[in-house]
Every structure is written in C-alpha cells, then in structure tokens.
Amino acid sequence: MYVAVKGGERAILNSYRMLDDYRRGDREVPELSLDQIREQMPLAVSRVMAEGSLYDPQLASLALKQAAGDVIEAVFLLRAYRTTLSRYGYTQPIDTGAMRLQRRISSTFKDVPGGQILGPTYDYTQRLLDFTLEAQREADALPAGDDALDSSMPRVTDLLAHDELIDAEPVPEGDPEPFDLTRQPLDFPASRAARLQNLARADEGFLLSMGYSTQRGYGNTHPFAAEIRYGALEVEMHIEELGFTVTVGEIDITECQMVSQFAGNAAEGPKFTRGYGLTFGYGERKAMSMALVDRALKAKDLGERADSPANDHEFVLYHSDNVEASGFVQHLKLPHYVDFQANLELLRRLRADRRAPQDAINDLMDEAVSS
C-alpha cells in the first residue's frame, strides 16, 4: 500500500530547523565567518560569482555558508538574489590588455613580451595531502615585491592577428546592442554573444566534460592555450549627467584564449581560429573549458563537420545551466503520487491482459487432459 506522507507545514518548518542545525554542526567548533570563507576559499567564491552572474565576494561567501558548501545551491541563492536588484546602467567594455596581472602564461610561445608569470597555481604541486595544515600553521607571508610587472603585455592573439594568422573578430557593423541573456529568452540559431553569455555562467563540470570530449575525438579541433591571464581590472561607467567616464570598482577576472588550426575553405585560406573564455575571479579550469566549447560551437559557422555533442548548439546551451538542470532533476523529489498510481494501475492491467490468453490456454489443456 502507498500512503501519502503526512505532516504538511509543521514538518517543513521542522525541516528548516534541522537544516540550520546540520549546517551549524558541532557547537564546540567556532562558527565559520564570511571573512574566512571569502579570504580562505577564494576559488569556491569565484565559481559561485561566475555561475551566479553576480560579482560580489561577500554575498557569494554568504551563499556558500547558507548552502553548507553546496556550490550549486549557493549559485541558485545568488542568482535568485540577483533578480531582485535594479539595473542602473551599463559599464564600458573592459580591456583585458590593461589587466593588473597576477598570472599570465602561454603554451604557444616560450618567450612572450612581458614574460611568463606563474603566479598562484596548483600546476606544479604534488597532489599530496599537506597534513601540516591540520595543525593550522600560519604560512609565511610573501614579501612585498620590488619589481613591478610590465603594465603593457600584449595578448598573444594580438601578435598573431598582426601577421593575419588568426581569424579577425571585428565589432559588427553599426555596433548593435549585444544580446542580454538575463532579459531575453535563448533562441536558435544563437548569436556568438548569446553563446558566450550562456557559457560564462554555465556549470563548470558540464563545460569541462564537453571540452574534454573535443580533445578525445568528439570534435575536430586541436587546441593550444595561446594565453591564460588572471588579475584585476578596473570597471568604468559613463555617467551621462557628468559627461565623462568614472571608475566604479575593480574586479578579478580570468581570461583564456585557445587557438586551433583551420584548413580554410573556398572563401578564406588556412589560419588559426580562436575560442574564448572569461570568468569572474580566479577560475582557470572554467575559462579553459569555456574556450574549448566556444570553439567547438563555431564549427558549423566555419563549414566544418559538426556531428559531436560539443558542436550541437541546442544540446550544449540548453543543458549547461546548473540551476535549471538541478531544479529539473530535484523536482523528482516532489510528490508524484497520482502519476505513479496511474502508472502502477496501468502496469497491473497490462500484466493481467498479458496473462489472460495464457490462462485460457492452460484451462483448455487441463480440460483436454481430464477428458
């Protein structure tokens, strides 16, 4: 027998209290502060800001604390809060060439103007647990550097563009207002602006899988990481009442530009093509995955074979949003008693109908044997 769960509102309120207790944990352990999350879990904070489409480290830290460390739930919380905010205007396009860099590497040229800057990275660490962290030892602070980084570090793709070795990406004629995914529904065929906006807040794990698939043969690109940059950048807004542009803040961003070979076609010769990734905070894996998928989605535009999952615009763009995906999966936990009972009754009827002819045959055979 299937009986509906009883309890209603009272059970739900008790569930809230149990969740608060579960999130808080042992009261003997000091409560985690937002400052601790923001300063000591910057990679998680960066991911929540990127996929939540809101640059605010403090609110992202709050979302992570409220979600008990569940990144997707924290993204959901931050994105829901974002929808309540008023939009006052639009900032000027950022120039990543003017970034105050903390990290800048290229796997295409050993010697690039400004040099390779390793910065903070796990790339060269041995993936071994550091048990000294258990003792809460305080790492030695980095001494202040005397040598300032070169403020002019041209992008590698700009060097390739100078020699016309890579596809140009000019501003469209008339400089039309870009697509806004937060205010306009996604439609197909999706423009490059729409695709990049979708990928920018897409689930990192999904993009990683899609990008990985292109490297394993489910795609026809052979990428190189032309450049990966991480650093701080000023954000400016033009104030019409004042008649000039003012700086409204500074954000940390990660940018990745991948280059892939293109054999050319009847209209243009062989060259490199690019895939682009940009994300809030420090998120190299996300930016690299985004760049791989961006290039894969350009296959049809370039006249290439486009029969792999990462080449399919609808498949990638419709399934990359973790909030939508999580909601659709988790809705299975809601009551489906009526639907299930209908299926159960149908199954029983089908099984009964299937048994009826066999039962009739058995009866005839019994009669024949007895006679």
TrEMBL record:
One family name in Pfam for this protein: PhnI
Keywords tagged on the record: Transferase
GO molecular function, one term: alpha-D-ribose 1-methylphosphonate 5-triphosphate synthase activity
Entry superkingdom: Bacteria
Record InterPro entries: PhnI (IPR008773)
GO BP term (any one): organic phosphonate metabolic process
The EC number(s) this enzyme carries: 2.7.8.37
Listed name of the protein: Alpha-D-ribose 1-methylphosphonate 5-triphosphate synthase subunit PhnI
